[in-house]
Specification:
alpha+beta, 10 helices, 35% helix
């Protein structure tokens, strides 16, 4: 089934040289290399070795000894932690690479917007999607006021992070005070969001250009529906409404390859929770029984040398 689908999504494109910014032991690096076999050349490189030289009439961005401007496409598959200076430089280097004509998926601006939960939530709301009431602040007093204003049942999230790491639900003011003091002591921004009553299930949609794939995620033992936290994945009918919401969420951060999390509340409201510009598809590929990596490569082939909308 997977092999047949793999052949069906191939476009009639020439060989493509792809630099894959990923961990060398990444499942996604192996999956993309498998899907590219005999069709495209995939070279895995790392963010930690990223360097750039600027000279008159010349810009070069490289990972170690590998010049990234020699590739047709740079596909970002990871966003490792680093200092503020390191992260800013990595995004700047990708941005200059784009400006010089190399296709980067996703663009640096899209990654910056999606990785920042405050900015992503604000952009989702501005795009007309329903989002949970959210208050972002920096002091313990402001956080306690937010806790009260949001009904004393909130979710606290790290501003940067994924897969449910560092997320906690707080329903007790003493525990909330302790948590906010700890975050303040670490110099963290405090991101407080109302808890949305739901049935421990959500929708994960994957936008690949014009395509939208989806799965249902449910967790019988936890309100968090991340697969990494034990949620089970099941099939989802991607209706025209879900596809439109997914495209709108991806577009609001400028991503053309994106994971979008939608949460159906008990009252029927469909909330946009997150948009991820470095999305995974390991569980999704099993659910939809399609070669998602081949679809990603097919999409990349189609956008090479064509500007991706900002």
């Amino acid at each position: 089934m997977v092999a047949q689908t793999f052949l069906s999504v191939r476009g009639s494109y020439e060989l493509m040289r792809i630099a894959l910014l990923a961990s060398p032991d990444s499942w996604y690096a192996r999956d993309l290399a498998r899907a590219a076999a005999g069709q495209h050349e995939v070279t895995t490189v790392g963010f930690h070795n990223l360097a750039s030289s600027v000279q008159t009439g010349q810009l070069q961005v490289a990972s170690g000894e590998v010049p990234l401007d020699a590739f047709d496409c740079v596909l970002v598959r990871t966003m490792p932690p680093g200092s503020l200076e390191q992260v800013v430089f990595r995004m700047d280097a990708l941005g200059r690479l784009e400006a010089a004509g190399t296709t980067v998926i996703n663009p640096a601006r899209a990654i910056e917007a999606a990785v920042d939960k405050y900015l992503a939530t604000a952009k989702l709301e501005a795009a007309g999607l329903a989002v949970p009431k959210t208050i972002v602040c920096q002091s313990v007093d402001q956080a306690m006021e937010a806790f009260a204003a949001l009904g004393e049942d909130v979710v606290v999230k790290p501003l940067f992070g994924s897969e449910g790491r560092g997320i906690a639900r707080l329903c007790d003011d003493a525990l909330a005070l302790r948590a906010f003091k700890m975050l303040s002591g670490l110099g963290a921004v405090i991101y407080v969001q109302e808890f949305i009553e739901h049935r421990n299930c959500d929708y994960r949609l994957l936008v690949i250009g014009e395509r939208v794939l989806g799965m249902n995620r449910c967790n019988d033992n936890d309100w968090r529906t991340n697969i990494s936290r034990g949620a089970r994945a099941g099939p989802l009918e991607v209706t025209a409404e879900l596809a439109e919401l997914a495209h709108r969420a991806a577009a609001c951060v400028g991503a053309t390859l994106a994971g979008v999390d939608l949460l159906p509340a008990r009252d029927g409201t469909l909330y946009a929770i997150e948009v991820n510009a470095v999305p995974g598809w390991k569980a999704l590929s099993r659910v939809v029984e399609q070669d998602v990596a081949a679809m990603v490569l097919d999409f990349a082939s189609g956008v090479i040398h064509r500007p991706i909308p900002a």
